Amino acid sequence: MSANRKILVTSALPYANGPIHLGHLVEYIQTDIWVRAMKAMGHTVTYVCADDAHGTAIMLKAEANSITPEEQIATVKASHEKDFAGFHIGFDNYYSTHSPENEQFSQEIYTKLEQGGYIFTKDVEQLFDTEKGLFLADRFVKGECPECGAKDQYGDNCEVCSSTYNATELKNPYSTLSNSTPVVKSSKHYFFDLPKFEDFLKSWTKGDNRLQSAIYNKLSEWFDAGLAPWDISRDAPYFGFKIPNTPAGEPDKYFYVWLDAPVGYMASFKNLCERTGLDFDEYWKKDSTTELYHFIGKDIVYFHALFWPAMLEGAGLRTPTAVNAHGFLTVNGEKMSKSRGTFIKAETYLNHLNPEYLRYYFASKLSASVEDINLDLEDFMQKVNSDLVGKVVNIASRCAGFIHKNNDGKLADTLAEPALVQEIIDAGSDIAAAYEAREFGRATRLIMACADKANEYIDTHKPWALNKEGKTEEVQAVCTVALNIFHKLVIYLAPILPVLSDNARNFLNVETLDFDSRQQHLLGHSINAFSPLMSRVEKDKVDAMVNDSKENLESKPAQKADNKTDNKVKNADKAAQAGSEFIGIDDFAKVTMKVAHVVECNSVEEADKLLQFTLDVGEESTRNVFSGIAKFYKPEELTGKKVVCVTNLAPRKMKFGISEGMILSAEKDGQLTVITLPDTMPVGATLA
């Protein structure tokens, strides 16, 4: 093994407004396996995390629940910790961003950035409710459309003529909070001058193994497009930390949640240091020789690979050794779905199945790439039953009884097949390397290849037949070889299956399961009585989990149609049955249309007609959609808008990538107009 390294590891912070689900667990299981593997190799590894506890969403969630934000985040934190413990995620500390340590570090970093000339302010004109004493977001203001004059339109978009505009352009605007007439007022916003760090970031991102190649290439595109200053302030009311050093008499300004969220890594570690005596500065000072790794989803790379290292550099602190991004989770080849029962909460899974099933299955699918992984429930059952029960556990169950019955639980004094056992020991080097490289799928394949050799050895020598012939010494010899291989397999699987491995350690009567202990031969060694280490995955339990996860669509009250509408529906149904140009309501019901937020919109090189959209449709991951509207819109005209996306079209493979839906537009005289929706429309809402 290499010399001991000091390593600090983090996972992205789950947001404190909802439960943990299987999509989240991809990241935490991946991180936990890597941490356990690195510890097993003899390194000093510390794993910290925290709840991301700030922002408007938290404030609104608390209001909806008639509790304080502090009560909201405390309740969710307890739920998160319970779920993580259920899946054996071994945090050294799990904290909250709403902490005194995080407030201190956030303000200190901001102050250093301000002193370095990296903070500037810019006034932005907004509508202000004088009765409520707050600036109005677009969803809190209505008025007459400046284009067509339609009344009661929201502050960014007209539902009648589809025009877009600024809220300050509305005619006769009024606040939806107080019904008063707002005034135009300037709001000072604070910006972090990210472009000043462009040269540093270009150099930093080129660091050895700093980023995966796919992530580096994406950052290169952002560099080519030009970095923009980052708005880091929000106006009250807001649940978060106040920005320090603001001029006297200025209204309260708060840090945008994404500023203090990554600082939460430091705060969680500091909290641990204060309780354990670890040296905080050793890990975070500028010239630190320790290592810092972040595990994140590919959707938050911008914050972790640009803003975060730039903030740390500007504040005179160390930057991450590497940022490891992963893909998203699909279930049965599709997006996670409540109606199909594949949007599975951690708690629901734990009510039905062994968490180590999922840990192993995820490990078998994970690599160092950012590709999405698929949880195929049929394959899940087959792989766990075949690999873990049929191969690994089967070795111990086939041999333990003979050793206890014939030899009072004592293994032979010598190895009958030392070369075979040494081959399994030598495989440990490749398995360790695969773990460190986050190639967990390769590690599991190597481990199962070793298990296959053990089972082939048992099948060849047939200890059950030897036992019938009374050849107890030969039976002991065969079982001693097999159980020594089982010992190595348990060591290799321990990062993935900590509970099974610990139970196996007790059965084998050994002290440790670190990688160096694989060199130990269990000879003349007494083992304990064998108890089943893992049962098979049962289909009825998987089905029960899916059923418990399904959204009860029938419980939603039906909307009552008026007679005119009802007659139209009936006539359309009759016409469809007669083969006319009409379709029936059942045909229309097959189309799923959802409100989508345009997270990003870009031109497509070599495709003049196409725009590429990154859409948030309220699912675990964003969708990639191509639309042939480039001659009608510039990307910046649609970025940030709410549009309608058909989400149940089959994915279409195109030259430039996979298109996962269709954006609705209206067409007249060859002119396409994208159908946009008010900002108040919730993302993921289904159009009916």
UniProtKB/TrEMBL annotation:
Annotated region described as Disordered, given as residue ranges: 549-570
EC number(s) stated in the UniProt entry for this protein: 6.1.1.10
Binding locations of ATP: K338
Pfam families: Anticodon_1, tRNA-synt_1g, tRNA_bind
Gene3D superfamilies, A to Z: HUPs (3.40.50.620), Isoleucyl-tRNA Synthetase, Domain 1 (1.10.730.10), Methionyl-tRNA synthetase, Zn-domain (2.20.28.20), Nucleic acid-binding proteins (2.40.50.140)
Main location: cytoplasm
Residue ranges occupied by any TRNA-binding domain in the UniProt entry: 587-688
GO molecular function, one term: methionine-tRNA ligase activity
Alphabetical GO biological process terms: methionyl-tRNA aminoacylation
Cofactor annotation remark: Binds 1 zinc ion per subunit.
Compartments where found: Cytoplasm
UniProt short sequence motif 'HIGH' region, positions renumbered to this chain: 14-24
UniProt entry keywords in alphabetical sequence: Aminoacyl-tRNA synthetase, ATP-binding, Cytoplasm, Ligase, Metal-binding, Nucleotide-binding, Protein biosynthesis, RNA-binding, tRNA-binding, Zinc
Leader peptide range in chain numbering: none
Motif 'KMSKS' region per record, residues: 335-339
Binding of Zn(2+), residues: C145, C148, C158, C161
Keyword Nucleotide-binding among UniProt keywords: yes
InterPro entries recorded: aa-tRNA-synth_I_CS, Anticodon_Met, M/V/L/I-tRNA-synth_anticd-bd, Met-tRNA-synth_bsu_C, Met-tRNA_ligase_1, Met-tRNA_synth, Methionyl/Leucyl_tRNA_Synth, MetRS_core
Cofactors named for this entry: Zn(2+)
Catalytic activity: tRNA(Met) + L-methionine + ATP = L-methionyl-tRNA(Met) + AMP + diphosphate
Summary of subunit composition and partner proteins: Homodimer.
Role of this protein: Is required not only for elongation of protein synthesis but also for the initiation of all mRNA translation through initiator tRNA(fMet) aminoacylation.
Family label: Belongs to the class-I aminoacyl-tRNA synthetase family. MetG type 1 subfamily.
The protein, known as: Methionine--tRNA ligase
Organism: Moraxella pluranimalium
The organism's taxonomic lineage, starting at the top: Bacteria, Pseudomonadati, Pseudomonadota, Gammaproteobacteria, Moraxellales
